Fold:
Amino acid sequence: MLSAAHDILRKQESGNATLSTSATLAVDVQGRNGSNSSRYDCNPVSTAAVLLADILPTLIIKLLAPFVIHKLPYGVRVLFCAIMAAMSFLLVSFSSAVWMSILGVIFASISSGLGELSFLSLTVFFSRDVLGGWGSGTGGAGVGGALLYSGLTQVGLSPKITLLIMLVIPFAMLISYFFLLVPPPSLPQWKSKETEYAAAGSEERRRLMDGSEEEEREKSTPAEIRTAGPLSFTEKLHVIKGLLRFVFPLGLVYFAEYFINQGLMELLFFPNFFLSHAEQYRWYQTLYQVGVLVSRSSLCCVKIRRVWALSLLQVVNAVLLLFAVQYQFLPSAWLVFAIVLYEGLLGGAAYVNTFYFISEESADRQREFAMAAASVGDSLGIALAGLTAFPIHRYFCSL
Structure:
């Protein structure tokens, strides 16, 4: 959806809901380039509009869901995520107005936000090695989405056909989760956590009545956690306080990189390059995702505890490209390609190392909630980046 942001906001032929090979995802009645007098090739609306539609529902979910999500079984969550993802592709594909496309992006955001929160919580039921797989998988998803969209539209498919092809992804999600994944017995697949706690508590009382205290003492820690009951609201607030040292650096990294991606990338246009403006924007997004994939897959080789250092380097990137937009001193898009690749490396490393050390340093009983709650950091940074990008875009396009 973010790779398609530039296309979503471009002009579609008036009254024609059928998208041609060179057409766009949605109508923009204000014109293709908006401010023709501007020295920048600007959309009338910043691509930050798509970013906000993509991140605000996710942010709301991540802020509220950790306190109540234990009432919803994991199987129901995954099924809902797949439905929302499929609806998002269908809405954007057949949209005849910008608001329909934005609604489709919102559906994608709901699927993404609930999915990330749920799957991060699921990692506590498996070996901690799965965090490396999660990092590689999410990095690969970014590359897959950006590369497929850029590649298929580059070879001549319309954005509409490209997004309809993507409908295979929600079905693959359902197949991989319900048929390929081997869940541990402790995973509450179709029962809420509260139901499981009650059942485990009844079993514990039965054993005590049978005089099997010795057997109970021999049980492993995970079983003790299952009978301990959910965290209280006060306990959750205490966990959140301890997470702030992880959440703030992660949020700053994502603020800087999405300020670049949705606030500056569209303005980094080189008219004499062999790629068009829309193509340059798509490949910026794709190379960024390649960097994310590489660094999110690096957990097995290197672990970085000082995430704040990655935050500072990302801020330097954002300042550099902000001045590059203002003074236009970068000689070629090739240099921007290298910078956004490096940007992706920093962002991916910050993400995967943050959740690795949260998993390592959280108590067993708190880990599931901590993994879900900390995921708000990147979404908060992205939302603030989208809000900041609006006035910046307006300023440059008015020059």
About this structure: Confidence is low (pLDDT under 50) at residues 11-36, 197-202, 212-227. The first helix runs from residue 5 to 8. The CA atoms of residues 201 and 213 lie 14 Å apart.
